[in-house]
Amino acid sequence: MLPALHRGLAAAIAATCAFTLLTTSASAASDPADRKKTVDSQIKELKEDLAETGSSLAKAYEALKTTQAKLPAARTAYDQAMAASRTAAQTHALATQRLELARANEKRAEAELKRTGKEIGASRIQVARMASQVYQDSGFGEMDLVLGSTTPQQFADRLVLNESLMDAQSATIDRLATQKATQLALEDQLSALRAEAVDAEQAAKVALVEAQAAEASAAAAKATLDALAAEQQSHAKDVAGQLDSERKRLAALTKESKALAATLAEIARKRKAEAERKRREWEKKHGAGSQPPSTSNGPLLWPTAGGVSSPFGMRYHPILHYWRLHAGADIGGACGQPIYAAAAGTIVEARVTSGSGLRIVLDNGVIRGVALATTYNHLSKFAVTSGSVKRGQVIGYVGSTGLSTACHLHFETYENGVPVDPMRWL
Q: How many angstroms separate the CA atoms of 193 and 189, rounded?
């Protein structure tokens, strides 16, 4: 039977983990405050379901469920951190490319400016040479061409040569002016490209810092997620390791409950037989159909200060996977606060039990036509242990003994030996 329980637990844990991963997006979309309320509500229900469960197992299982509840948010944080890291890395890569392009453009502009400078230098030398030649040939004009020419053909040749020289000089001067204009434009372009390179370099540095920060954030988120996963495995291992002892404890509790029910059923049988005997004697004395006065003093007194934290009803054990009856109402209360007899009665037992801890059982007699008994469980201390008690008398104090996870009173009512909802009487 135990291996099957282990397999069931493993399957439950695996299913929970799978559900956790599948619902990550939905959890991420909800408000954190709402998620906390949901988790708190689930933990509260879990505590109710784990009533009458060993405290060590209950704590281990509660820790497991709490860790599982944290996993969706951790997974979401990790996914978001990874997405931010990828975006930052892409931004840094683009910034680096922009910087490389800016530097390449700057280098090309510098080379072009240098080439233009050389061309200007060459043009200036050529203009200087032409100026020198003009100076040497000063006064050389059309009259010199006529007087210096011996033939008409020589005159014509000299005239053509002079015009060619003047055209070449003019073209060289024009080219020099163009080159200077180009140089100025290139200098402006180079200044702009250098400023762009500075901006690109700064952007690349900023992008690098952001990428490193995003990467560190992603690493931290992964560490958190890994820690939660390891913690979950540890809690699951703790839960699995305690299954056998828990089965034994619950078996003992079931045995105790059956024994108590049998005892109270026998007391109820005797009570009803005694009531029937008294009724017949009353009818014999006062006539058929007459009824003796009721000894009931009304509904039961609330046994301790506090509200119902877990009502009467069937419970599904989330670890052992079976339904069982929560045979009473758990009434929350501080450790050590007084517990009162809900009705007058006789103490049937006041002893230590393995499941209910310190327990008092009262035979409250026949009320409303049924033999009523009340039990008070998980006490920290007895105030009385035998004899009769009055309604409202202090009989013990709230505790957390036996199979209990926190201080409270587990209060039960039995009608003819059968457990019923205490709220029918309170």
A: 6
Strand partners, 419: 414
Structure tokens at 360: 């008092």
Helix (H) or strand (E) holding 381, with range, is: strand 381-382
Confirm whether pTM is higher than 0.85: no
Using CA atoms, how far residue 189 sits from 96, 117, 178, 201, 211, in Å, is 21, 15, 16, 18, 32
Sheet holding 381-382, edge to edge: 338-340, 394-397, 381-382
Closest alpha carbon to 351 in 360, 363, 343: 360
Check: CB of residue 210 under 8 Å from CB of residue 92: yes
Per-position b or e across 39-77, b if 16+ CB within 10 A of its CB: beeeeeebbebbbbbbeebbbbbbbbbbbbbbbbbbbbb
Tens-of-pLDDT digits for all 426 residues of the chain? Answer: 333 333 444 444 443 443 343 344 344 445 656 665 666 666 666 665 665 666 677 777 778 878 878 888 888 888 988 898 999 899 889 889 988 898 898 888 888 888 888 888 887 787 777 766 655 554 445 555 555 666 776 666 666 666 666 666 677 787 778 877 888 888 888 888 888 888 888 888 888 888 889 889 889 888 888 888 888 888 788 777 777 777 777 777 778 888 888 999 999 899 888 888 887 888 888 877 666 665 555 689 999 999 998 899 998 877 777 788 889 999 999 999 999 999 999 999 999 998 889 999 999 999 988 999 999 999 999 999 999 999 999 999 999 998 887 899 999 999 999 999 999 999
Distance CA 376, CA 358 (A): 8
- CB neighbour list of residue 395: distance below 8 Å, 6 or more residues apart: 339, 340, 341, 347, 360, 362, 376, 382, 383, 384, 389
Angle between helices 152-241 and 2-22 (to 10 degrees): 150
Dist CA 246 CA 56 (whole Å) = 10
β-strand 370-379 against 418-420: which pairing, if any? unpaired
For residue 349 the two structure tokens come to 């037992």
Q: Which residues contact 254 (CB under 8 A, 6 or more apart)?
A: none
DSSP sequence for 229-247: HHHHHHHHHHHHHTHHHHH
CA dist list (Å): 271 to 84, 342, 371, 414: 76, 19, 6, 13
